[in-house]
Design a protein that fits this description.
7-stranded mixed sheet; 11 helices; 7 strands; globular
C-alpha cells in the first residue's frame, strides 16, 4: 500500500455540500432543528465536518473487505461510510446506545451491513460473528487516550495484516497521545476533516510474530476480558468513594444497588461469556 498516495487521493473527496441519494437521507426531517443540524454536518455544509466525505472517499479508494465502525450515534458516519461501499464490502457498526435514528431502510436491510449494540470492548457482543481480518477500523467513541489505546489492544489481533485505523477527535483531552505514540505511518488531517482532530494510522502486523487465526481470536478475547475486568475495578472504586462520602443510609444503599447492578452483575456475566468463548 502506498499510504501517502492513498491519503492524497482520499483528500480530494473533501468538499462542501456533499450530495447523497435520497434513499440514504430520508430519515432526516429538515423541519426539526436537531435533524437539520446533523444533516448539515453530514453534507459538510460549513466545511468544518470534512471527515464525512473523507470517510466515504477512503472506502472508495481502499480495497477494504471488512470495515468496522466503533461509535455510530445517530448514524451519520454510518451513512457516509455506506455511501462509498461496493457490493464486496461489509460494514459492521457498533454503539453502546441504540439510537441510530438516521439510518435508512436501505442500510438497515442491506446484506452488507450489520449493527451491533453493546460495549465495543466486550467482544461477546458479536456472538458467533466476530469480525476478523478488519481492513478499516473507524473509531469515534470516548475521548480519551485510555479508551482508544484499549480499543487497539482488543482489536489488534482482529485487524488484517495491513489495515487502516481512523480516529476522530484526537485533539480532545489526552487522546493525541495515541497519535504521538504510534510506531507506524500516520497522518493528521485535522485541518480538512475536523477541528477537534482527525488521524489516520497505517497498521502492519509483524511477520515474525504472525499467529494463526485461532490464536489471534483467542488473544483478542483475552484482551477483552482484561479490559472488562479493569472496568469492573474502576466502577468498584467509584462505589467505595461514594460510600465513604455519602452519609445518608437510604441514599447509600440506593447508589450501591445501582453500581452493583451495573458494574458487578453485568460485568461478571460478560466475563463468564468471554471465558466460555475462550475455553470452549
Amino acid at each position: 500500500m502506498d499510504f501517502d498516495q492513498l491519503i492524497l487521493n482520499t483528500n480530494k473527496y473533501v468538499k462542501k455540500n456533499i450530495h447523497y441519494s435520497e434513499e440514504l437521507i430520508n430519515k432526516f426531517d429538515k423541519n426539526i432543528p436537531f435533524d437539520l443540524e446533523n444533516y448539515n454536518y453530514l453534507i459538510n455544509s460549513s466545511g468544518k465536518e470534512g471527515y464525512f466525505p473523507w470517510l466515504s472517499g477512503i472506502v472508495k479508494e481502499y480495497d477494504a473487505k471488512i470495515i468496522l465502525e466503533l461509535g455510530n450515534r445517530y448514524g451519520c458516519s454510518t451513512i457516509a461510510l455506506f455511501s462509498g461501499m461496493n457490493e464486496d464490502q461489509q460494514l459492521i457498526s457498533v454503539d453502546i446506545v441504540k439510537d441510530q435514528r438516521y439510518l435508512p431502510d436501505k442500510i438497515i436491510e442491506s446484506n452488507n451491513f450489520k449493527c451491533v449494540i453493546g460495549d465495543c470492548l466486550d467482544l461477546t457482543i458479536y456472538q458467533e460473528k466476530l469480525p476478523v481480518d478488519i481492513d478499516i477500523m473507524w473509531s469515534d467513541t470516548e475521548h480519551s487516550f485510555e479508551q482508544i489505546q484499549t480499543e487497539f489492544g482488543v482489536y489488534e489481533n482482529l485487524l488484517a495484516d495491513e489495515a487502516l485505523i481512523i480516529v476522530d477527535d484526537i485533539k480532545l483531552n489526552d487522546k493525541f497521545l495515541f497519535f504521538e505514540k504510534w510506531r507506524y505511518k500516520k497522518n493528521e488531517l485535522s485541518k480538512i476533516c475536523h477541528e477537534n482532530g482527525f488521524g489516520i494510522f497505517l497498521y502492519k502486523r509483524n511477520v515474525k510474530l504472525k499467529k494463526s487465526k485461532e490464536q489471534r481470536i483467542h488473544d483478542s478475547y483475552h484482551e477483552s476480558l482484561k479490559a472488562i475486568a479493569k472496568m469492573k475495578n474502576v466502577y468498584e472504586k467509584k462505589l467505595n468513594t461514594i460510600e465513604e462520602n455519602y452519609f445518608l443510609i437510604k441514599g447509600k444503599k440506593k447508589i450501591k444497588k445501582i453500581y452493583y447492578n451495573f458494574a458487578s452483575y453485568k460485568t461478571r456475566h460478560r466475563i463468564n461469556q468471554i471465558k466460555s468463548s475462550i475455553f470452549k
